[in-house]
Amino acid sequence: MKRILLGLTIAALAAACATTTSPTGRTQHVGGVSKAQLDEMGAQAFAEAKKKERISTDQRQNSYVRCVVNSITRELPPGWQANWEVAVFVDSSPNAFALPGGKVGVNTGIFTVAKNQDQLAAVISHEIGHVVSRHHDERITRQMGSQVALNVLGSLVGARYGDGAAGATSQLGGAALQTAFLLPGSRTQESEADVVGQRLMAQAGYDPRQAVDLWQNMIAASSTRPPQWLSTHPDPQARIHELGARAGALIPVYEQARAAGRTPKCG
Predict the structure, then answer these.
(1) φ and ψ at 93, to 5 degrees?
(2) Which residues are bridge partners to 107 per DSSP?
(3) 75 an active-site residue?
(4) Is 265 part of any domain?
(5) Helix 117-132 to helix 135-161 angle, to the nearest 10 degrees?
(6) Mean of pLDDT over the chain
(7) Alpha carbons 126 and 192: distance in angstroms, whole number
(8) What pTM did the predictor assign?
């Protein structure tokens, strides 16, 4: 019976998910929710953020961010170039995000580390890179699969050793999945968004070398950070090294974009 239950669970998960290839050639498991549901979730999360957070009324800031977003999204593959909604939040933390459904949020604190339009483009293109790489879909699918597997394990343990053991399995298993399965996957996504975003900014006519300067500014502004193995972001110094190594190869892409007239003048 235990083998049958586990087999049915695995079969159900496999049927619900699909395998695809990311922009960097990595195999992804997606399809836990439909694209329409994912876009709806993104729109809902964005609406909640706008209700909860104070939105900047500074027209210069709003125009600046919208200009950078528009110049980047014009370079996206067909199907991703819908009208992206932009919001600037009055928040001192240097952060930004992009969501399925074409949503971009930028905190005013980002201007303390993104010193020019190229550095702001590095932030925004990285976040949009998460969306076009289907990272939200991938993460939701992975979390759904992890939770189902954990529930099955808890049921099997509970049937043998009682409800107390089942509860302990769920708690310990959840912590193990978070540190050994979910977080490492997120670091992979962050690195992939760096690759996708840096190329995207170069295609839009922004200097890819400025991504290195941005992260140097980020490090200078950060006092503490969690250990790498418990972080959803790659080690900053390793990240800077990789961004710098890629920048040289992207200079021809950047120069070609400029020669073709893609010369953003956002700020």
Answers:
(1) -75, 130
(2) 89
(3) no
(4) no
(5) 50
(6) 79
(7) 9
(8) 0.79
- HSE-CB of 33 using CA atoms within 13 angstroms: 19
- Between 207 and 21, the more confident residue is 207
- From residue 19, alpha-carbon distances to 29, 68, 109, 181 in Å are 5, 33, 38, 18
What is the pLDDT at residue 54?
96
Q: How far is residue 122 from each of residues 1, 100, 176, 225, measured CA to CA in Å?
A: 53, 19, 33, 21
Measure Cα distances from 20 to 41, 66, 143 in Å. 21, 31, 17
Among candidate residues 127, 138, 190, 192, the one labeled active-site is 127
Asked whether residue 92 is domain-assigned, the answer is yes
Q: At what angle do helices 236-259 and 183-203 cross, to 10 degrees?
A: 30
Complete DSSP assignment for 150-218: HHHHHHHHHHHH-HHHHHHHHHHHHHHHIIIIIHHHHHHHHHHHHHHHHHHHHHTT--TTHHHHHHHHH
Mean pLDDT of 214-227: 76
Q: Which domain holds residue 10?
A: 2-259
CB atoms within 10 A of CB 250: 19
19 vs 52: CA distance, rounded Å: 36
Q: What's the structural domain count of the chain?
A: 1
- Alpha helices (H) in the chain, listed in sequence order: 2-16, 35-52, 59-73, 117-132, 135-161, 163-177, 183-203, 210-221, 236-259
Residue 9 domain flag: yes
The answer, yes or no, to whether residue 148 has pLDDT greater than 60, is no
* Tokens read off for 79: 């199907």
Q: 123 Cβ partners below 8 Å, 6+ apart? A: 96, 106, 110, 114, 214
Report the pLDDT averaged over residues 106-111: 96
Residue 173 lies in a domain: yes
Judged by DSSP in three states, 53 sits in: coil
- What pLDDT score was predicted for residue 55? 97
